[in-house]
Amino acid sequence: MRNIKLTVEYDGTNYHGWQIQPNAITIQAAIQDALAKITKTHTQIIGAGRTDTGVHAAGQVANFHTRSQIPPIAFQKALNATLPRDITIIDVEEVSPDFHARFNAVSRTYRYTILNRAYPSALLRNNAYFFPKPIDVQGADAIYRFLVGKWDFSSFQRSGSERINPICEIYQCRCWQEQDLVYFEIEADAFLRGMVRAIVGTVLKLHDRKDGINRLRGVLDARDRSTAGASVPPHGLSLLCVKY
Amino acid sequence: MRNIKLTVEYDGTNYHGWQIQPNAITIQAAIQDALAKITKTHTQIIGAGRTDTGVHAAGQVANFHTRSQIPPIAFQKALNATLPRDITIIDVEEVSPDFHARFNAVSRTYRYTILNRAYPSALLRNNAYFFPKPIDVQGADAIYRFLVGKWDFSSFQRSGSERINPICEIYQCRCWQEQDLVYFEIEADAFLRGMVRAIVGTVLKLHDRKDGINRLRGVLDARDRSTAGASVPPHGLSLLCVKY
Hints:
- Two copies of one chain form a homodimer.
- Chain A folds into two domains: 2-95, Pseudouridine synthase I, catalytic domain, N-terminal subdomain (Alpha-Beta Plaits); 107-243, Alpha-Beta Plaits, CATH 3.30.70.660.
- Chain A has five helices and ten strands, in the order E-H-E-E-H-E-E-E-H-E-E-E-H-H-E.
- Chain A has helices at residues 27-39, 72-82, 137-145, 195-206, 212-222, and strands at residues 2-10, 46-47, 56-66, 87-95, 107-115, 129-130, 149-152, 167-178, 181-188, 237-243.
- In chain A, strand 8 (167-178) and strand 9 form a beta hairpin.
- The first copy, chain A, starts with a strand and ends with a strand.
- Chains A and B meet through helix 2 and strand 4 of A and helix 2 and strand 4 of B.
């Protein structure tokens, strides 16, 4: 069996997230349906990150095993011709048989985008969270960067989705501004369910407090979701890339 | 009567263009409907540029006369709370009674965006024209800039929409590339119907020919739509700004 690696861009607005589930349109299901049409076989794909409803991706990675002899570039063309226009395959590669998009990932990088001005944006309505209150970007960046390192992120995990191992290592994170947009980017070995949105919400809540870093430390120590800030909405979030 | 100037951003994907018409959803109609709800009076608005179906705007300008005493900032908030999310009022100003968004405009600037790579983009599907063949951007820029000055643009006018005066003055235009995106920007005193899309289509057709400029000159001289290239599709086009 060949092992094919896909890099996928999608607009998550009209999907119930990545992962296949009954009675809901998901990215994984759409790609599997397209593969079934192309290869005439049911094919299961493995995604690197399970993005939630409304979350986008610039570089999600997935892989699948197939007996098909279609060359990678032809797979890409056939998939892009078959998939809905809000899902694009930006790269196809044949990889070694043991490559696993999820387990072999060394890090995932997410970016959260905030529109920080007094009025919303028609053009960015599905891709940036409209937050009209002024943000002290330097303050937010200082608090945010405190997270670099290994931490127990239980306080930032969606309740009801507890993972056995809540320890994640943040390799880098930074917050910066470009005109009206404020970006929060974060790279880690792994993320718990809802973790990025809970972190950004908490940083937004604490960013203009002098004791913000201490408070963030307190939230981490508490290991209790109720101590963190409210999650920011999903449409500002995008899975940027996955490293192997 | 007060005279109110609006600066409007919109995603034209779901609209039949700017101008009001029976049995079709238009930007003008949506704004007039919102104004009627807010002021309790039917109010006609005047737009600077009549964008076509599927064309976007980052800075369309419109004005309307009203007896309402609502302050500009409150008008903006009320309109943005009432309008669909794909139309945003980015500025409201009270202007002199004789200001006319269309007749007083000194120039309009349009930008056309092309995604120039081998595969499409899910995230840009409604805002950039996917054109996979390589573009010689320097060649395109040279031909495009030839248009600066006063010309008879009859050859670039949508047939059936002939304007009495087909002379437009191009103040500036340029074509450049940023990563996978190629932009064509153009500022002129006026534009004929379909003119930008016909120009970009013609430049794309001629850009890699040694005699491209001569051929473009020939198209201008012919004053015949059939001599120009096919129009590029509307979703790559955006009305960037209007100067007064």
